[in-house]
Design brief:
17 helices, 10 strands, two-stranded antiparallel ribbon, single chain, 362 residues, 8-stranded parallel β-barrel, alpha/beta, 46% helix
C-alpha cells in the first residue's frame, strides 16, 4: 500500500490521498462514497435526486460503512438543496460541497462543529465570492469535466486560480483519470483532484454496467464527448450518441420543458408547490432549473437503466484514459503509484537526466 500523500487538502480533510469522488447523481451513492473514503480518498454523496429523509438515510448508511472523512453535495440553486444541506449540517457531516449558490450560512454553521466547506467554481469571479462566503477550499471545474464544466481548461484554470488566491487549497476537476493527471494537477498548483468519470467506472459504482463497458471499451477516445447548453440549460459535457447529438442541436420548446420538469419533480419527490412559484417570480433561474429537470429522464435512462440509445450520459474527456473497470481500492493504489512515477520522471528530466524520456517511453 502506498504511503500517505501530504497536501493542504489531505491535511484539511483528514484523508490519506488527494483524490475526491465528486457528487454525481445516481452514481455517488453510499456504497461508492464509502469505498472511496475507505480507500484513502474522500467520497462526496450526491443529493440531487434525494429528499431530506433520503439524504439522512444515505448519510447514516455511509457512516455504517466507513469511519473515514466523507462529504455531502448541495447544488443550492436546485429545489430541495437547502433542506438536504440542513440535514447534512444537523448530522455534522465533515465536508459539505456547495455549488450554484451562496453558501455563507452553510460555512457559518459547519464551522461551529469543525466541518469544512468545499465550493465548486469555474472562474475567478465565483472563486472570490466563494472565499468571501467562508469556503475552506475550492473545486475548480475545467472545460474537460463531465457535466457542468466551465469555459476554461484545467491546464489554465488551476494555475490561474492558484496564483490569484494562493491562500486557498484547490481541488482540480476535469479530465483527470490517472496518476499522470494527478501529478500534473499538483504541479499546476492544485492540492488534490476530483475524478468523477474514473470512479464512476469501477466495480463499486452504481453506473449501469452497459455504460461502464461503453466508456471503457478500447476504441473510446477523448473525442467521444459533446459540449453545449441545449441539453439541460447549463453548458454540459455528455457522451456522444445519436440521442445526445439530437438533443444538443436546439433547446426544447417551453411547453416540453415545463411538462418534463414537472414529471421529473414528481419522480424525484419534489412537491410542485416548490416549482410553480419560482416559474412565476424567478423566471430566468427557474426556466434553467426546469430545463435541467427536464433532462432528468434522459440522464436516468443512461445512468440507471443503461439505455445508451435513448439516454444521455455525463462524461469527461478523460474517458479516453479509462480502459478497465477496477475495484476502487485497486484504482486508488494504481493512481498513486503512477503519480509517483510520473513525478520522479519529470524531476529527473528537469534535472538533466537524459535517460528520463527513454524510461517514460518504455
Amino acid at each position: 500500500m502506498a504511503s500517505a500523500v501530504r497536501t493542504r487538502i489531505t491535511s484539511l480533510f483528514g484523508c490519506k490521498y488527494p483524490l475526491l469522488l465528486p457528487g454525481m447523481s445516481w452514481i455517488s451513492d453510499p456504497k461508492l462514497v464509502a469505498a472511496v473514503s475507505n480507500a484513502g480518498g474522500v467520497g462526496i454523496l450526491a443529493t440531487g435526486p434525494l429528499d431530506a429523509d433520503q439524504t439522512l438515510a444515505a448519510i447514516r448508511d455511509i457512516r455504517s460503512q466507513t469511519d473515514q472523512p466523507f462529504g455531502v453535495g448541495a447544488t443550492l440553486l436546485m429545489p430541495g438543496a437547502k433542506e438536504n444541506a440542513e440535514v447534512a449540517l444537523d448530522e455534522q457531516v465533515p465536508i459539505i460541497n456547495i455549488s450554484l449558490g451562496k453558501g455563507d450560512w452553510i460555512a457559518e454553521q459547519s464551522h461551529k462543529y469543525g466541518g469544512k466547506v468545499l465550493a465548486t467554481v469555474t472562474n475567478a469571479k465565483h472563486a472570490q465570492s466563494a472565499i468571501e462566503s467562508g469556503a475552506d477550499a475550492l473545486m475548480l471545474t475545467g472545460h474537460e469535466a463531465a457535466a457542468h464544466g466551465g469555459d476554461v481548461t484545467s491546464l489554465v484554470l488551476v494555475p490561474s486560480i492558484s496564483k490569484r488566491f494562493p491562500e486557498i487549497p484547490l481541488v482540480a476537476a476535469g479530465g483527470v483519470a490517472d496518476g499522470r493527471g494527478l501529478a500534473a494537477a499538483l504541479s499546476l498548483g492544485a492540492d488534490a483532484v476530483a475524478m468523477g468519470s474514473r470512479f464512476a467506472v469501477t466495480k463499486e459504482s452504481s453506473l449501469a454496467q452497459s455504460m461502464k463497458e461503453i466508456i471503457s471499451q478500447p476504441d473510446s477516445t477523448e473525442s467521444d464527448t459533446l459540449y453545449g447548453k441545449n441539453f439541460d440549460g447549463i453548458p454540459a459535457r455528455v457522451l456522444k450518441s445519436e440521442e445526445s447529438v439530437r438533443l444538443m442541436k436546439s433547446p426544447a420548446s417551453l411547453p416540453v420543458v415545463v411538462y418534463r420538469a414537472f414529471n421529473a419533480a414528481s419522480t424525484m419527490n419534489i412537491p410542485l408547490w416548490k416549482v410553480i412559484p419560482g416559474l412565476v417570480t424567478q423566471w430566468q433561474n427557474m426556466y434553467m432549473i426546469a430545463q435541467f429537470g427536464a433532462a432528468t429522464e434522459s440522464l436516468m435512462k443512461a445512468t440507471v437503466d443503461g439505455n445508451h440509445q435513448e439516454g444521455v450520459q455525463f462524461i469527461s474527456q478523460g474517458m479516453g484514459l479509462i480502459n478497465d473497470i477496477p475495484a476502487v481500492d485497486e484504482l486508488v493504489q494504481r493512481i498513486i503509484a503512477e503519480a509517483l512515477d510520473a513525478s520522479s520522471q519529470s524531476v529527473a528530466a528537469l534535472s538533466g537526466d537524459t535517460d528520463a524520456g527513454n524510461r517514460r517511453a518504455a
